[in-house]
Amino acid sequence: MKHPNKQRTVTRSLVLALGTFLTAWSTAHAAPEDHDWAQFHDFYKQILETDSSAATGSCTAVAEEARAHLLAAGYPANSTEIILAPDLPRDGNLVASLPGTDATAPAILLLAHIDVVNAKASDWKRDPFRLVEENGYFYARGAVDDKAMAAIFVDTLARFRQDGFRPKRTIKLALTCGEESGGRLRGIRYLIEHRPETVKAAFAINEGGSGYLDAGGKPRLFSVEAGQKVYQDYHLAASGPGAHSSRPGKDNVITRMSAALVRLGAYRFPADISPVTRRFFARSATLQTGTIATDMRALGAGSNDPAIINRVADADPVWNAMIRTTCVATMMTAGHARNALAQSADVNVNCRILPGEDPQAIQARLTAEIADPSIVITLGSSPAPRSIAPPLTPDIMTPIEQIAGQLWPGVPVIPSIAPGATDGRFLTAAGTPTYGVSGIFLDPDGNGIHGLDERVRTQSLYNGRTFLYRLVKDYASE
Question: Which of 74, 139, 170, 311 could form a disulfide with 132 if both were Cys (CB 3.0 to 4.6 A apart)?
Fold first, then answer.
């Protein structure tokens, strides 16, 4: 009879020996992108802790840190450049490139913005400009938006250089300022207008497409953004003579404007379902049940049945926003005294316009639906460049689907048009089709992006790093 204590000792020894062997084997056989976590972590930490908000920070400081990281990896000085407007020294943009071996092969562009939304430290539980690692998350302003992709792209290019990887295509990098604070300088537009050669490419990879987790933290879907709606504000103005509030007449500026806004709120722009959106519904149907699943499959197959469209649009405001242009009143100013009838009322109407539609045609539609000639409707800002949704070709989608399938088996890859907007809309309009794809999975609550205590799961960030390394290498090797 074997002694039980001796048997347990032998078993433990075998388990320990097997564990040591498997660790050594996995280290020796791991893909190169799975190494150097510490180096990536340190750079990610460095740029997160460098404030680049418009109110208190400097994009130029982050651009200089990223440039130093590339130079330390062996990039020659003339392959990197910090570009800024002469009168805006804090709003610098970094451009860099890794030359390809085939001069005839069009370049690819890696795009990320390095400015972040302003953060008031007193409102946060943690210092917004100090990386905090807690309960499996990284916390900091920009932890996701968009310093995660900026850090990954710089890290990827650095390791390509260190590993001696020679891409067929030239790989360009643009880290831009002003995506979150474009009122001062929008870096991507500055580059397009002043240094177009730095961002000209066959296509670009940008923020916008993310993975999404369910409430239990399990990957639910992998999103690829192929097109963005156009942001456009309109100004509505009504005026009148005003009077003493004790003698109200039939005409009241505020009442007149309110009636116009009720008509606007009741109006739905016509549905216009693009090929990208049809593919979104076709693939998203697998995640739904019942009538909605059936309706989504029908839309994906080409149906234009108004009843089906309305049921899907009513089920989720995001789905509605993918189907049609939307306009909504967001701000109102009226009156000058509590005891006087208003002499003016001004309203901002924010529209998110489907790709390819004309902002001036939307203005005409607003005029028709409000149906009050006394209310003057003007563009709140110069129209943004018009662009169509970039095509989802096999050259773009196949590498994404293959690599996502390796890392997250069984998770559907679903293309979409973003209801919001990023710098990608300017780049696409300038002739470089831009796709949102990050490989970083987000929680259902949105991870505090643009809000308090922004965060990203540690494992999601590292998985996104692995995904983008493989994707960029695949694209660059074509």
Answer: 139
If residue 253 lies in a helix (H) or strand (E), which one and from where to where?
helix 253-266
Q: Is a pLDDT exceeding 70 seen at residue 382?
A: yes
Rounded Cα distance between 378 and 235, Å, is 5
The whole-number pLDDT of residue 35 equals 64
Report how far residue 161's alpha carbon sits from residue 124's, in angstroms, rounded to the nearest whole number: 39
What is the pLDDT at residue 42?
A: 97
Q: Which residues are CB-neighbours of 368 under 8 A, at least 6 positions away?
A: none
* Pick from 149, 177, 160: nearest CA to 88: 177
Q: Is 48:140 a contact under the CB 8 Å cutoff?
A: yes
Helices 359-370 & 253-266 angle (0-180, nearest 10): 120
Q: Per-residue pLDDT for 405 more than 50?
A: yes
The 10 Å CB-count burial string (b at 16+, else e) for 115-133 is: bbbbbeeeebebebbebbe
* Residue-averaged pLDDT of the chain: 91
Q: Say what the pTM is.
A: 0.87
DSSP state at residue 113: E
User: Tell me: the pLDDT tens digits for 208-228?
Assistant: 899 999 999 999 999 999 988
**Pure H helices in 109-186:** 147-163
